[in-house]
Each structure stands twice: as C-alpha cells, then as structure tokens.
Amino acid sequence: MAPYLDHAATTPLRREARDAWLAAADSAGNASSTHRAGQGARRVLEDARERLAAVLDCEPIEVVFTSGGTESVNLALQGLWRARADGRDAVVLPDAEHHATLDTVEALRSAGARVSAVAVDGLGRISAEAFAEAVAAPAVALATALIANNEVGTINDAPALSAAAAASGVPLHLDAVAALGHVPVSFRALRADAPAGAGLVALSIAGHKIGAPVGTGALLVARTARLSALLHGGGQQRGLRAGTQDVAGAVALAVAAELAESEREGERERLRGMRDALIDGIRARVPEAVLLGDPGADEPGRLPGNVHLLFPGAPSESMLFLLDQADISASAGSACQAGVSEPSHVVQAMGFSEGEARSVLRLTLGRTSTRDDVDAVLAVITQAYARASGTASGKRS
C-alpha cells in the first residue's frame, strides 16, 4: 500500500465495519414499520444505538444518528440557537474551529446571531479562562469548541470548558470528530454536575474518522437539552432528525467505535512513537521546519498521530505535489478546504502570518500506518523542501 499520511481527513474502512454493514444491509425492513421485518430492523438499529452509547458513556436515547460530523455540528448549533430563550442571541466561538462550525455560525450571524470570539494561544489551545469569561457574558445562547484541533492536533481541556459553560448556565456543544479513538470521550463525565440544559449538552462524531463508512455519524443530545430540529417529516430520533433511519450505517458505526475504543490505549503509544520519529527525522533533515501545535510531551498534549509543520518559503501546494509524486498522501489542513488555495485560518489564529499559513504540511498517522510510511517521508522530505522553497542545489542531505 502506498504511504498514506492523511488519516485526519479520512481513515480506511475497517473490514469488521464493512462486514457489519453488508450483513445489516442484506435484511429488508424500515425500522419505523410495525410489521415483523420492520421490527427486526428496529431491534438491530436500537442494538447499535446501545452499543455506541456504551462506547461514548451516555444513554441510548441521547444518541441521534446523522450523516456525519458536518450534519451533527449543524444540528447542534442551529438547533440550540433556534431553541434559545429569554432573548439570548450570542454564540461563543473559538477562533481555530473547523469550517463546519465556522460556516454554521456565519449562517447564524446572517440570521441575527452575535458572535463572541475566543482567541487561541500559540499552540492552538483554547484558554479555559478566556472561554469562561466569554460564556459568563450576558445574552450568550450557546458555546462550541473542539476537543482536539483537527489541523494542528492540540488537545483542549474539555472538562474545564464544560465546567465553565455549566457555571454560567450556557449550553455547550463539543466537536469530538478528531478526538474520538485517540483520547477518552465520556459524555457522562463531561456533563458531571451540570445544571439542566447547561454545560455540555451536545457532542458530535463522524464515522469515517474511525473506520466506519463515509456518511455515518452521530450527535449526542442530553435529555435536558432544548434543540430545534433541522429536518421534519417523521418524528424519528426524539423528533430531532426526521427520515428513514440508516440501520446498516448505524451498525457499522457502532462496530467501528467499539474497535477504536478497545484499541485506543495501545494505538496511542504506537502512533506516538511513529509520530515522534517522524518529527525528529524531518527536523534533522530540514532544520528550518517548525513544529506547530502542542509539542505533546505533557497532558493534555497533542493527538498521537498528528504532525503539523511549517516549512518556511515552501508553499503547501508545492510540498503536497512533490510528496504526491513520490506516492505519499498528505494534506495542508482540513480536507473540507481541499482544492481551495487559502492560508490556514488555524495557523493564522495561532499568531502566524498569512505567508507562513500558506507553507504548512499536515502528516497524520492511523491504525494502518507503519514505520515504512515514516521512512518513505524521510527519504524524500529533504529534496521536496529544497525544490519547493527554490533552494535545490544537490548539496542537502
């Protein structure tokens, strides 16, 4: 298999998830039908809901199956804002969020929402103190934050963010898309001691980040949350997400989540070892390269498979082209922005210039990664940087 270092964009489908999908898809029956076939599908669907709830430590009724992370984020943010009370209209938004969140909040701004921005530090981390100050302001309708940054891999202090929102009586959505399978995610623990309707009330995940099929995902919605639906028509899933439910997709997602959680501790150590070898190897060959995000030595640290580097003077597009010529898959940032020649908003939010934000490379490892993948990058990175930066002279080693 060619070296694939873009697991943060999507990771290969797990064989077990594929087999579970095929087995479930072979059975007819709409889970909302009352006949025997329909009720059989319903039992399979609810079993998947219970299994996913066990992984994420929540109640099965709190699991709302969706088509992926983007839909989950939209349902959480638009749903919470539309259901707001007492004239509250402000949204607390950290600067380095995923575009699914940024663009959803921008749509809410067009509908009348005010946005209260929270800066991130030079590592891309949300300040818990600044977040607490923002959610304590009057008229805050909701807050949102990433558990782990999808570009630079920095992990945020999710318990502190949830506690801050709970203390101010503000409903909070956490985006766990990049975090699931790499850090512990417990909906129950993150909601501890929160008053009804405040603190963490919604958490989004995407199946294709953990080896489930593309088009699967879920939003966890606390029983006490007030949320308006985006889709109407059948009243499925507590009335929050109408439409015929995807039984096969739900089963595949549950299987992938179980496997990701069971492997998490061992994979963390394995990926950290390869991650650090990749970082050290690149720095040895390209001393100009700058590691972005948390160095990862201390908690909460960075995602175990994330390597995000600034290559001064080397445009991201050139680096990616040269790596692709060597059959190596990588990225400059979020795949949702692929094909769009824009500087990384995350890197700029961390205090870097627009030019620097156009010269970054994200290499992400996953469960199919091996040391051969690391070695493949190290074998070509020196020449790739020399060519991309216009300094190729044949003298680099």
Structure description:
With 397 residues, this protein is α/β, with parallel strands linked by helices. It folds into 2 domains: 15-257, Aspartate Aminotransferase, domain 2 (3-Layer(aba) Sandwich), CATH 3.40.640.10; 264-389, Aspartate Aminotransferase, domain 1, CATH 3.90.1150.10. The protein has 12 helices and 10 strands. The protein has helices at residues 15-25, 36-56, 69-82, 99-110, 128-135, 158-167, 187-190, 247-285, 316-325, 345-349, 354-357, 371-389, and strands spanning 63-66, 90-94, 114-118, 140-146, 171-175, 199-206, 217-221, 290-291, 306-310, 360-364. The strands form 2 sheets. Strands 1-7-6-5-4-2-3 form a 7-stranded mixed beta sheet, with helices on both faces. The radius of gyration is 21 Å and the shape is globular. The chain starts with 14 loop residues before the first helix and ends in an 8-residue tail after the last helix. Mean pLDDT is 95; it is low at 393-397.
